Amino acid sequence: MQRLPVSQLISSFHAISKFEHVATLAMREKRSYHFDSRTFTELMDHVKEFKMYCFEMGFAISSRLSDELIDELKLAEPGESSFRELNFSQVQRTHEKAQAIVNCLRHEAVVRVALTLDPDNVALYEGLHTALSSAAKTKFPDLVLEIEEAAKCAAFGRATASVFHSMRAMEIVVKAVRACLGITVPLEGQERNWGVMLGRVRDNMTGRANPWAEREYFKALYARLDAVKDGFRNGTMHVENVYSDDLAKTILRDTVALIDQVAGRMDQNGLPLA
Prior knowledge:
The chain has 274 residues and is mainly α. It folds into 2 domains: 6-111, Four Helix Bundle (Hemerythrin (Met), subunit A), CATH 1.20.120; 119-263. Helices cover 66% and strands 4% of the residues. It contains 11 helices and 3 strands, in the order αβααββαααααααα. The chain has helices spanning 6-28, 37-57, 60-73, 88-108, 119-125, 134-139, 144-155, 159-180, 194-206, 215-237, 245-263, and strands at 33-36, 77-78, 83-86. A 3-stranded antiparallel beta sheet has the order 1-3-2. The radius of gyration is 30 Å and the shape is elongated. The two termini are 43 Å apart.
């Protein structure tokens, strides 16, 4: 996936196309062409920028032609009063390169498809609406990628895929809570099942003697995780639920909020222990 600054690409292409037009007029009149310093510098910058975008998008021929146009423009001789001049022969060569770029891009662009995002989804794609706190990133490094992927999927309208990644992130939280309570049964076979893990969490809390200062905290946390299991996790993993874009984004925001809350108490290894 590539980020394409459309406005800059259009601006650069327009500058090359405009130069191709004025070079055509100069050729028809069989004359040289003069740039003022500012116009010459701006054209060079546009061609260099265009070359960079072509290279990043895999438009190899357009990128190479841009290099060739840059080399030809560098031959423009300084004239009086800070002007640059292309003699008639140079006008012909630069026109040929500019025209080749315009025509080549039309063909190379056929093999690419551009997907656009509205501003809200751009922010979502870049993680601006769903950013984890610095504490959560530090304490739960294994789920950072899952949240990033959930946000990117939501931005591109892949709602169910987004929820899938949100649930993977939540599983890391479930394992952390399990470890925090000192549950040491190896996570093998059925022990990896959310229902089994949360069952052991429930039994552990029930078996703790009073007073236990954190009972209400873990009781509320267990209730939220159990609700996620029944409401979203099982239906996502067992190919039962299909989600709307709005619901997927809500689930993602709620997931991030819960992770930030849990990160205030423990890390992904369950430390400090309860």
